[in-house]
Amino acid sequence: MKKNVIPKEGVYYIYSIYQQILPELLVRDLTKLFYDIEMPLIPCLYRMEKRGIKIDIQFFKQLTKELEKEIFSLQKEIYQLSGIVFNLNSPKQLAEVLFDRLKLPIPKGKERSTASEVLIELLPYSPIIEKILRYRELNKVLTTYLKPFPEMCDENQRLHTYFDQTKTSTGRLASLSPNLQNIPVRGELGQKIRKGFISEEGYLLISADYSQIELRILAHITEDENLIDVFLQDKDIHTTTAAKIFKVKEEEVKEDMRRFAKMVNYGLIYGMSDYGLAESLRLKKEEAKEFMENYLNSFPKVKEWREEVIRKAKEEGYTKTLFGRPRYFPALLSPNKTLYEQAKRQAINAPIQGSAADIIKKAMVEVDRKLIENRFNIGLILTIHDELLFEIEKERIEEAKEIIKETMENIYPLKVPLKVNIGIGKNWQEAHS
DNA sequence: GCGATCACG
DNA sequence: ACGTACGTGATCGCC
Fold first, then answer.
1. Which of A20, A119, A194, A376 could hold A428 in an S-S bridge, CB 3.0 to 4.6 Å?
2. Protein footprint on strand B: which nucleotides are under 7 Å from a CB?
3. Is the peptide bond before A178 cis (omega within 30 degrees of 0)?
4. Which residues pair with A45 in a beta bridge?
5. What is the spatial distance, in angstroms and rounded to an integer, between the CA atom of A175 and the C1' atom of C14?
6. Is the predicted pLDDT of residue A111 greater than 90, yes or no?
7. DSSP string, A109-143
8. Using one digit for the tens of pLDDT, what is the confidence trace for A177-186?
Protein backbone atom coordinates (compact mmCIF):
# COMPACT_ATOMS: atom_id res chain seq x y z
CA MET A 1 0.00 0.00 0.00
CA LYS A 2 1.13 3.50 -0.82
CA LYS A 3 1.55 5.37 2.41
CA ASN A 4 -0.01 8.65 3.48
CA VAL A 5 -2.41 8.66 0.58
CA ILE A 6 -6.16 8.39 1.07
CA PRO A 7 -7.96 8.13 -2.26
CA LYS A 8 -10.22 11.18 -2.49
CA GLU A 9 -13.34 9.16 -3.26
CA GLY A 10 -12.69 7.05 -0.14
CA VAL A 11 -13.49 9.89 2.22
CA TYR A 12 -17.11 10.05 1.10
CA TYR A 13 -17.69 6.43 2.00
CA ILE A 14 -16.37 6.55 5.55
CA TYR A 15 -19.67 7.62 7.11
CA SER A 16 -21.66 5.00 5.25
CA ILE A 17 -19.13 2.35 6.25
CA TYR A 18 -19.50 3.52 9.84
CA GLN A 19 -23.25 3.10 9.63
CA GLN A 20 -22.83 -0.42 8.39
CA ILE A 21 -20.25 -1.32 11.01
CA LEU A 22 -21.95 0.13 14.08
CA PRO A 23 -24.67 -2.52 14.48
CA GLU A 24 -22.08 -5.21 13.92
CA LEU A 25 -19.92 -3.74 16.69
CA LEU A 26 -22.91 -3.74 19.02
CA VAL A 27 -23.95 -7.29 18.23
CA ARG A 28 -20.44 -8.62 18.74
CA ASP A 29 -19.90 -6.53 21.87
CA LEU A 30 -16.92 -4.79 20.33
CA THR A 31 -17.72 -1.17 21.07
CA LYS A 32 -15.27 -0.93 23.98
CA LEU A 33 -12.45 -2.39 21.92
CA PHE A 34 -13.31 -0.04 19.09
CA TYR A 35 -13.78 3.19 21.03
CA ASP A 36 -11.33 2.64 23.91
CA ILE A 37 -8.45 1.09 21.98
CA GLU A 38 -8.48 1.07 18.20
CA MET A 39 -9.96 4.53 17.49
CA PRO A 40 -7.76 6.49 19.95
CA LEU A 41 -4.78 4.58 18.59
CA ILE A 42 -5.17 6.06 15.11
CA PRO A 43 -3.86 9.59 15.86
CA CYS A 44 -1.16 8.07 18.06
CA LEU A 45 0.07 5.88 15.19
CA TYR A 46 -0.15 8.81 12.82
CA ARG A 47 2.14 10.87 15.04
CA MET A 48 4.64 7.99 15.28
CA GLU A 49 4.69 7.59 11.52
CA LYS A 50 5.20 11.32 11.07
CA ARG A 51 7.98 11.56 13.68
CA GLY A 52 10.01 8.64 12.32
CA ILE A 53 13.40 7.52 13.67
CA LYS A 54 16.77 9.01 12.84
CA ILE A 55 19.54 6.88 11.39
CA ASP A 56 23.22 7.61 10.97
CA ILE A 57 23.48 7.49 7.20
CA GLN A 58 27.28 7.72 7.16
CA PHE A 59 27.46 4.80 9.58
CA PHE A 60 25.12 2.74 7.38
CA LYS A 61 27.18 3.50 4.27
CA GLN A 62 30.47 2.69 5.97
CA LEU A 63 29.12 -0.62 7.30
CA THR A 64 27.73 -1.38 3.84
CA LYS A 65 31.22 -1.02 2.36
CA GLU A 66 32.76 -3.29 4.98
CA LEU A 67 30.14 -5.99 4.51
CA GLU A 68 30.34 -5.85 0.72
CA LYS A 69 34.06 -6.47 0.96
CA GLU A 70 33.66 -9.51 3.22
CA ILE A 71 30.78 -10.85 1.12
CA PHE A 72 32.89 -10.63 -2.02
CA SER A 73 35.73 -12.63 -0.52
CA LEU A 74 33.34 -15.20 0.99
CA GLN A 75 31.79 -15.63 -2.42
CA LYS A 76 35.21 -16.27 -3.96
CA GLU A 77 36.09 -18.84 -1.31
CA ILE A 78 32.77 -20.64 -1.73
CA TYR A 79 33.19 -20.90 -5.52
CA GLN A 80 36.72 -22.19 -4.98
CA LEU A 81 35.66 -24.86 -2.48
CA SER A 82 32.79 -26.01 -4.67
CA GLY A 83 34.78 -25.85 -7.89
CA ILE A 84 31.95 -24.06 -9.70
CA VAL A 85 30.54 -20.56 -10.04
CA PHE A 86 26.80 -20.42 -9.36
CA ASN A 87 24.11 -18.15 -7.90
CA LEU A 88 24.59 -18.42 -4.16
CA ASN A 89 21.22 -16.78 -3.58
CA SER A 90 19.39 -19.61 -5.31
CA PRO A 91 18.47 -22.34 -2.82
CA LYS A 92 17.93 -24.67 -5.78
CA GLN A 93 21.43 -24.16 -7.20
CA LEU A 94 22.99 -24.28 -3.74
CA ALA A 95 21.25 -27.59 -3.01
CA GLU A 96 22.67 -29.02 -6.23
CA VAL A 97 26.17 -27.97 -5.25
CA LEU A 98 25.91 -29.32 -1.69
CA PHE A 99 23.99 -32.53 -2.17
CA ASP A 100 24.87 -33.58 -5.75
CA ARG A 101 28.30 -32.13 -6.46
CA LEU A 102 29.81 -32.30 -2.95
CA LYS A 103 27.68 -35.31 -1.95
CA LEU A 104 26.94 -34.00 1.53
CA PRO A 105 24.43 -36.11 3.47
CA ILE A 106 20.81 -34.96 3.66
CA PRO A 107 19.73 -34.94 7.32
CA LYS A 108 16.71 -37.22 7.61
CA GLY A 109 13.32 -35.61 7.26
CA LYS A 110 14.85 -32.44 5.86
CA GLU A 111 14.62 -33.08 2.12
CA ARG A 112 17.39 -31.11 0.35
CA SER A 113 16.67 -27.96 2.29
CA THR A 114 19.41 -25.35 2.59
CA ALA A 115 17.85 -23.58 5.58
CA SER A 116 20.41 -22.58 8.19
CA GLU A 117 19.02 -25.09 10.66
CA VAL A 118 19.95 -27.85 8.18
CA LEU A 119 23.30 -26.32 7.23
CA ILE A 120 24.33 -26.24 10.89
CA GLU A 121 24.03 -30.03 10.98
CA LEU A 122 26.33 -30.21 7.94
CA LEU A 123 29.07 -28.09 9.56
CA PRO A 124 31.29 -31.12 10.35
CA TYR A 125 31.26 -32.36 6.74
CA SER A 126 32.78 -29.44 4.85
CA PRO A 127 34.50 -26.10 5.50
CA ILE A 128 32.22 -24.60 2.85
CA ILE A 129 29.23 -24.64 5.20
CA GLU A 130 30.41 -22.02 7.68
CA LYS A 131 31.26 -19.73 4.79
CA ILE A 132 27.78 -20.13 3.32
CA LEU A 133 26.18 -19.41 6.69
CA ARG A 134 28.29 -16.28 7.11
CA TYR A 135 27.51 -15.21 3.54
CA ARG A 136 23.79 -15.63 4.20
CA GLU A 137 23.94 -13.62 7.41
CA LEU A 138 25.82 -10.73 5.83
CA ASN A 139 23.85 -10.67 2.60
CA LYS A 140 20.54 -10.68 4.48
CA VAL A 141 21.51 -7.71 6.57
CA LEU A 142 23.03 -5.89 3.62
CA THR A 143 20.12 -6.23 1.22
CA THR A 144 17.28 -5.91 3.75
CA TYR A 145 18.52 -3.09 5.97
CA LEU A 146 21.86 -1.48 5.24
CA LYS A 147 21.47 -0.72 1.54
CA PRO A 148 17.78 0.32 1.37
CA PHE A 149 17.50 2.43 4.53
CA PRO A 150 19.69 5.42 3.59
CA GLU A 151 17.64 5.71 0.38
CA MET A 152 14.36 5.74 2.31
CA CYS A 153 15.26 8.57 4.70
CA ASP A 154 13.72 12.03 4.63
CA GLU A 155 15.78 15.24 4.58
CA ASN A 156 16.39 14.93 8.35
CA GLN A 157 17.84 11.42 8.04
CA ARG A 158 14.67 9.98 9.54
CA LEU A 159 12.94 6.76 8.51
CA HIS A 160 9.14 6.61 8.56
CA THR A 161 7.37 3.28 8.81
CA TYR A 162 3.70 2.66 8.21
CA PHE A 163 1.63 0.84 10.84
CA ASP A 164 -1.19 -1.36 9.59
CA GLN A 165 -3.84 -1.71 12.27
CA THR A 166 -5.98 -4.24 10.38
CA LYS A 167 -3.56 -6.80 9.06
CA THR A 168 -2.84 -9.35 11.79
CA SER A 169 -5.25 -11.99 13.04
CA THR A 170 -4.23 -11.56 16.69
CA GLY A 171 -4.53 -7.79 17.11
CA ARG A 172 -0.87 -6.96 16.83
CA LEU A 173 0.25 -4.12 14.60
CA ALA A 174 2.17 -4.69 11.40
CA SER A 175 5.01 -2.35 10.41
CA LEU A 176 5.91 -1.94 6.75
CA SER A 177 7.87 0.00 4.16
CA PRO A 178 10.15 -0.27 5.92
CA ASN A 179 9.38 -2.83 8.60
CA LEU A 180 10.94 -1.38 11.76
CA GLN A 181 9.76 -4.28 13.90
CA ASN A 182 12.41 -6.71 12.67
CA ILE A 183 15.62 -4.69 12.95
CA PRO A 184 18.46 -7.11 13.82
CA VAL A 185 19.37 -7.30 17.51
CA ARG A 186 21.01 -10.71 18.03
CA GLY A 187 24.73 -11.27 17.76
CA GLU A 188 27.54 -8.80 17.18
CA LEU A 189 26.22 -7.69 13.82
CA GLY A 190 22.74 -7.02 15.20
CA GLN A 191 24.17 -4.95 18.04
CA LYS A 192 26.27 -3.00 15.54
CA ILE A 193 23.30 -2.20 13.30
CA ARG A 194 21.27 -0.92 16.24
CA LYS A 195 24.00 1.63 16.88
CA GLY A 196 22.95 3.19 13.58
CA PHE A 197 19.50 4.11 14.97
CA ILE A 198 20.10 7.33 16.85
CA SER A 199 18.51 10.26 18.66
CA GLU A 200 18.52 13.84 17.45
CA GLU A 201 21.19 16.20 18.84
CA GLY A 202 20.11 17.18 22.36
CA TYR A 203 17.81 14.14 22.67
CA LEU A 204 18.09 10.56 23.90
CA LEU A 205 16.24 7.33 23.11
CA ILE A 206 14.29 5.58 25.85
CA SER A 207 13.44 1.92 25.37
CA ALA A 208 10.72 0.50 27.62
CA ASP A 209 9.92 -3.18 27.34
CA TYR A 210 7.38 -5.31 29.14
CA SER A 211 9.16 -8.16 30.89
CA GLN A 212 7.61 -11.52 29.89
CA ILE A 213 4.22 -9.97 29.29
CA GLU A 214 2.77 -13.05 27.59
CA LEU A 215 3.69 -15.40 30.44
CA ARG A 216 2.24 -12.92 32.94
CA ILE A 217 -0.96 -12.87 30.90
CA LEU A 218 -0.96 -16.66 30.90
CA ALA A 219 -0.74 -16.54 34.71
CA HIS A 220 -3.62 -14.05 34.83
CA ILE A 221 -5.89 -15.92 32.46
CA THR A 222 -5.29 -19.43 33.80
CA GLU A 223 -5.17 -18.28 37.44
CA ASP A 224 -2.59 -20.99 38.02
CA GLU A 225 -1.41 -20.53 41.61
CA ASN A 226 2.15 -21.65 40.98
CA LEU A 227 2.58 -19.41 37.94
CA ILE A 228 1.03 -16.44 39.75
CA ASP A 229 3.31 -17.11 42.70
CA VAL A 230 6.43 -16.87 40.54
CA PHE A 231 5.50 -13.39 39.37
CA LEU A 232 4.20 -12.16 42.73
CA GLN A 233 7.57 -13.05 44.24
CA ASP A 234 9.34 -11.54 41.23
CA LYS A 235 11.23 -14.77 40.68
CA ASP A 236 12.87 -15.71 37.39
CA ILE A 237 10.18 -17.72 35.57
CA HIS A 238 12.59 -19.64 33.37
CA THR A 239 14.73 -20.70 36.33
CA THR A 240 11.65 -21.80 38.28
CA THR A 241 10.36 -23.77 35.31
CA ALA A 242 13.79 -25.35 34.84
CA ALA A 243 13.79 -26.50 38.47
CA LYS A 244 10.35 -28.07 38.02
CA ILE A 245 10.90 -29.84 34.73
CA PHE A 246 14.38 -31.12 35.64
CA LYS A 247 13.25 -31.87 39.19
CA VAL A 248 16.16 -30.08 40.83
CA LYS A 249 16.47 -27.19 43.29
CA GLU A 250 16.44 -23.69 41.84
CA GLU A 251 20.03 -23.13 43.00
CA GLU A 252 21.07 -26.13 40.92
CA VAL A 253 19.66 -24.79 37.65
CA LYS A 254 22.44 -24.35 35.09
CA GLU A 255 22.48 -21.92 32.18
CA ASP A 256 21.52 -24.49 29.53
CA MET A 257 18.73 -25.85 31.73
CA ARG A 258 17.32 -22.33 31.96
CA ARG A 259 17.57 -21.96 28.17
CA PHE A 260 15.62 -25.22 27.73
CA ALA A 261 13.00 -24.06 30.21
CA LYS A 262 12.61 -20.80 28.34
CA MET A 263 11.78 -22.73 25.19
CA VAL A 264 9.31 -24.88 27.10
CA ASN A 265 7.62 -21.81 28.56
CA TYR A 266 7.20 -20.18 25.19
CA GLY A 267 6.41 -23.48 23.50
CA LEU A 268 3.50 -23.80 25.87
CA ILE A 269 2.09 -20.46 24.74
CA TYR A 270 2.41 -21.60 21.15
CA GLY A 271 0.62 -24.88 21.78
CA MET A 272 3.75 -26.92 21.14
CA SER A 273 3.62 -30.72 21.20
CA ASP A 274 6.19 -33.02 22.76
CA TYR A 275 7.38 -33.84 19.27
CA GLY A 276 7.90 -30.16 18.47
CA LEU A 277 9.75 -29.73 21.73
CA ALA A 278 12.00 -32.68 20.89
CA GLU A 279 12.71 -31.19 17.45
CA SER A 280 13.65 -27.73 18.62
CA LEU A 281 15.69 -28.92 21.58
CA ARG A 282 17.22 -31.92 19.78
CA LEU A 283 15.91 -34.28 22.43
CA LYS A 284 14.64 -37.81 22.33
CA LYS A 285 10.88 -37.89 22.10
CA GLU A 286 10.57 -39.63 25.47
CA GLU A 287 12.66 -36.98 27.19
CA ALA A 288 10.62 -34.19 25.66
CA LYS A 289 7.44 -35.91 26.72
CA GLU A 290 8.70 -36.14 30.28
CA PHE A 291 9.57 -32.42 30.33
CA MET A 292 6.11 -31.54 29.04
CA GLU A 293 4.45 -33.74 31.65
CA ASN A 294 6.58 -32.29 34.43
CA TYR A 295 5.62 -28.81 33.28
CA LEU A 296 1.91 -29.45 33.02
CA ASN A 297 1.87 -31.14 36.41
CA SER A 298 3.70 -28.19 37.94
CA PHE A 299 1.26 -25.69 36.48
CA PRO A 300 -1.97 -27.71 36.46
CA LYS A 301 -4.32 -24.86 35.63
CA VAL A 302 -2.37 -24.17 32.44
CA LYS A 303 -3.24 -27.66 31.26
CA GLU A 304 -6.91 -27.21 32.15
CA TRP A 305 -7.03 -23.84 30.45
CA ARG A 306 -5.53 -25.16 27.21
CA GLU A 307 -8.25 -27.80 27.03
CA GLU A 308 -10.98 -25.36 27.99
CA VAL A 309 -10.00 -22.72 25.44
CA ILE A 310 -10.11 -25.26 22.64
CA ARG A 311 -13.45 -26.66 23.78
CA LYS A 312 -14.93 -23.18 23.86
CA ALA A 313 -13.46 -22.19 20.52
CA LYS A 314 -15.04 -25.27 18.94
CA GLU A 315 -18.38 -24.49 20.52
CA GLU A 316 -18.53 -20.76 19.81
CA GLY A 317 -16.26 -20.61 16.79
CA TYR A 318 -13.88 -18.02 18.20
CA THR A 319 -11.57 -17.04 21.06
CA LYS A 320 -11.47 -13.66 22.80
CA THR A 321 -8.74 -11.54 24.37
CA LEU A 322 -8.96 -9.67 27.68
CA PHE A 323 -10.55 -6.77 25.83
CA GLY A 324 -12.92 -8.95 23.84
CA ARG A 325 -10.97 -9.03 20.58
CA PRO A 326 -12.22 -12.13 18.73
CA ARG A 327 -10.36 -14.47 16.44
CA TYR A 328 -12.41 -16.97 14.49
CA PHE A 329 -11.39 -20.60 13.90
CA PRO A 330 -13.36 -22.23 11.11
CA ALA A 331 -10.59 -24.82 10.78
CA LEU A 332 -11.60 -26.35 14.11
CA LEU A 333 -14.32 -28.04 12.03
CA SER A 334 -11.92 -29.13 9.32
CA PRO A 335 -11.55 -32.83 8.53
CA ASN A 336 -7.96 -32.04 7.51
CA LYS A 337 -5.92 -33.02 10.53
CA THR A 338 -3.05 -30.65 9.78
CA LEU A 339 -5.38 -27.67 9.57
CA TYR A 340 -7.28 -28.81 12.62
CA GLU A 341 -4.17 -29.21 14.77
CA GLN A 342 -2.85 -25.89 13.55
CA ALA A 343 -6.10 -24.18 14.50
CA LYS A 344 -5.92 -25.69 17.97
CA ARG A 345 -2.46 -24.20 18.50
CA GLN A 346 -3.61 -20.86 17.16
CA ALA A 347 -6.61 -20.94 19.49
CA ILE A 348 -4.28 -21.38 22.47
CA ASN A 349 -1.96 -18.61 21.31
CA ALA A 350 -4.46 -15.98 20.13
CA PRO A 351 -5.90 -14.92 23.51
CA ILE A 352 -2.38 -14.54 24.93
CA GLN A 353 -0.66 -12.77 22.08
CA GLY A 354 -3.80 -10.72 21.46
CA SER A 355 -4.22 -9.67 25.08
CA ALA A 356 -0.63 -8.48 25.15
CA ALA A 357 -1.41 -6.43 22.04
CA ASP A 358 -4.52 -4.97 23.72
CA ILE A 359 -2.49 -3.92 26.74
CA ILE A 360 0.39 -2.33 24.87
CA LYS A 361 -2.02 -0.47 22.59
CA LYS A 362 -3.79 1.01 25.59
CA ALA A 363 -0.43 1.94 27.09
CA MET A 364 0.62 3.63 23.85
CA VAL A 365 -2.46 5.81 23.73
CA GLU A 366 -2.09 6.80 27.36
CA VAL A 367 1.69 7.44 27.36
CA ASP A 368 1.50 9.40 24.11
CA ARG A 369 -1.31 11.51 25.56
CA LYS A 370 0.61 12.25 28.77
CA LEU A 371 3.81 13.18 26.97
CA ILE A 372 1.93 15.59 24.73
CA GLU A 373 0.03 17.03 27.67
CA ASN A 374 3.36 17.67 29.41
CA ARG A 375 4.76 19.39 26.30
CA PHE A 376 7.52 16.96 25.44
CA ASN A 377 9.01 17.81 22.04
CA ILE A 378 8.96 14.42 20.31
CA GLY A 379 7.74 11.39 22.32
CA LEU A 380 6.73 7.89 21.21
CA ILE A 381 8.39 6.85 17.93
CA LEU A 382 8.19 3.04 17.65
CA THR A 383 6.36 -0.02 18.99
CA ILE A 384 7.86 -3.49 18.67
CA HIS A 385 5.16 -5.76 20.17
CA ASP A 386 6.33 -5.59 23.79
CA GLU A 387 8.69 -2.63 23.56
CA LEU A 388 8.03 1.09 23.15
CA LEU A 389 10.74 3.44 21.91
CA PHE A 390 10.74 7.14 22.75
CA GLU A 391 12.85 10.13 21.78
CA ILE A 392 13.06 12.69 24.59
CA GLU A 393 14.97 15.92 25.21
CA LYS A 394 18.01 15.25 27.42
CA GLU A 395 17.04 17.63 30.23
CA ARG A 396 13.73 15.86 30.81
CA ILE A 397 14.81 12.22 30.61
CA GLU A 398 14.12 11.31 34.23
CA GLU A 399 10.71 12.96 34.14
CA ALA A 400 9.76 11.07 30.98
CA LYS A 401 11.10 7.80 32.35
CA GLU A 402 8.82 8.06 35.39
CA ILE A 403 5.73 8.79 33.30
CA ILE A 404 6.46 5.94 30.88
CA LYS A 405 7.18 3.27 33.48
CA GLU A 406 4.29 4.24 35.72
CA THR A 407 1.79 4.34 32.86
CA MET A 408 2.87 1.08 31.24
CA GLU A 409 2.97 -0.90 34.50
CA ASN A 410 -0.44 0.27 35.70
CA ILE A 411 -2.42 0.57 32.47
CA TYR A 412 -4.43 -2.57 33.17
CA PRO A 413 -3.89 -4.31 36.52
CA LEU A 414 -3.66 -8.09 36.29
CA LYS A 415 -3.52 -10.73 39.04
CA VAL A 416 0.26 -10.44 38.67
CA PRO A 417 2.30 -7.24 38.35
CA LEU A 418 3.37 -5.99 34.94
CA LYS A 419 7.07 -5.16 34.93
CA VAL A 420 8.73 -2.71 32.56
CA ASN A 421 12.47 -2.49 31.94
CA ILE A 422 13.78 0.89 30.89
CA GLY A 423 17.00 1.73 29.07
CA ILE A 424 18.40 5.05 27.92
CA GLY A 425 21.02 5.87 25.31
CA LYS A 426 22.03 7.96 22.31
CA ASN A 427 21.34 4.96 20.07
CA TRP A 428 18.99 1.98 20.08
CA GLN A 429 21.74 -0.46 21.05
CA GLU A 430 22.54 1.52 24.20
CA ALA A 431 18.89 2.10 25.05
CA HIS A 432 17.79 -1.50 24.61
CA SER A 433 18.34 -2.73 28.16
C1' DG B 1 2.82 -14.35 -7.76
C1' DC B 2 4.60 -17.93 -4.80
C1' DG B 3 7.96 -20.57 -2.05
C1' DA B 4 12.23 -20.48 0.53
C1' DT B 5 14.75 -18.09 3.66
C1' DC B 6 15.53 -15.28 7.62
C1' DA B 7 15.08 -10.74 10.31
C1' DC B 8 12.06 -9.58 14.72
C1' DG B 9 8.56 -10.21 18.99
C1' DA C 1 0.14 -43.35 10.96
C1' DC C 2 0.01 -38.61 10.70
C1' DG C 3 2.25 -34.05 11.52
C1' DT C 4 4.16 -31.53 14.57
C1' DA C 5 5.44 -23.81 18.06
C1' DC C 6 2.46 -18.49 17.51
C1' DG C 7 2.52 -13.81 14.87
C1' DT C 8 4.68 -10.79 11.23
C1' DG C 9 7.55 -8.37 6.39
C1' DA C 10 11.43 -8.08 2.88
C1' DT C 11 14.28 -10.13 -0.47
C1' DC C 12 15.40 -13.31 -3.85
C1' DG C 13 14.87 -16.85 -7.45
C1' DC C 14 11.95 -18.86 -10.47
C1' DC C 15 7.79 -20.01 -13.12
1. A194
2. 4-9
3. yes
4. none
5. 28
6. no
7. TSTT---HHHHHHHGGG-THHHHHHHHHHHHHHII
8. 999 999 999 9
Taking the C1' atom of every nucleotide in all shown strands and the CA of A349, the nearest one is C6
Helix axes A337-373, A255-269, angle to 10 degrees: 100
Distance, CA of A61 to CA of A41 (rounded, Å): 35
Using the predicted structure, report yes or no on whether residue A432 has a pLDDT greater than 60.
Answer: yes
Protein residues in reach of strand C (CB < 7 A): A 87, 89-90, 92-93, 143-144, 148, 164, 167-170, 172, 174-179, 181-182, 263, 266-267, 270-273, 275-277, 279-281, 337-338, 341-342, 345-346, 349-350, 353, 385
pLDDT > 70 in chain A, percent:
97
Strands A162-164 and A158-159: unpaired
For strands A53-55 and A197-198, give the pairing: antiparallel
Which whole number is the average pLDDT over A292-300? 91
Interval A343-392: pLDDT, tens = 999 999 999 999 999 999 999 999 999 999 999 999 999 999 999 999 99
Give the whole-angstrom CA distance, residue A88 versus residue A376: 49
- The protein residue nearest C2 (Cα–C1') is A337
* pLDDT above 50 for A3: no
pTM above 0.90, yes or no: yes
pLDDT tier, A196 (very low <50, low <70, confident <90, very high otherwise): very high
Cα–Cα distance between A349 and A218 in angstroms, integer? Answer: 10
Cβ of residue A182 near strand B, that is under 7 Å? yes
Å between CA of A97 and C1' of C15: 22
Write down which residues 350-369 in A have CB closer than 7 A to strand B.
353
What is the model's pLDDT at position A405? 98
Q: Which CA distances in Å does A211 have to A208, A350, A353, A421? A: 9, 19, 14, 7
Tell me the domains of chain A and their CATH numbers. Answer: 29-55+158-213+358-432 (3.30.70.370), 57-148 (1.20.1060.10)
Residue A1 reports pLDDT greater than 60: no
Query: Of residues 384 to 403 in chain A, which lie within 7 A of strand B by their beta carbon?
Result: 384-387
